[in-house]
């Protein structure tokens, strides 16, 4: 096999591995948001068309995507270390988003999770979504 074809096959393998890891981390993000909010998230978004729930989930997915992107972009030359690093930073991002969510819940009236999935638009969704993005940006910056 020629060097250029070998490089392409090698790149495809790495992209597949990082892509699969990224999808797993995104799914974990969906599960995390589902656990932190009452009701079934999928039903609230796709059947009830709940915009609050959609904004909240979207911010978590964008945040995790940003962490995974940064980790891959700054990856180690060693593929194995890069993959492990991406997994570790991705899980750290999920944990930190959950911690931030719980801390915001402590300082706000009522149950934040319930507020965030109300059918009527609520400003708390934008605050929580911004917190997700900010936490993710902090984790991403710590990688570089």
Total number of beta strands? 0
Structural class: mainly alpha
The backbone outline, from C-alpha atoms, is: elongated
Q: What's the helical proportion of residues?
A: over 70%
Strand content: under 5%
Radius of gyration: 18 Å
Q: How many domains, in number, for the residues?
A: 1
Largest sheet features: none
Descriptive notes:
There is one protein chain. This protein has 144 residues and is an all-alpha fold. It has one domain. Helix content is 83%, strand content 0%. The chain contains 6 helices and no strands. Helix 1 runs parallel beside helix 4 (79-107). The chain is elongated, with a radius of gyration of 18 Å. The two termini are 35 Å apart. The model has no long low-confidence stretch (mean pLDDT 93).
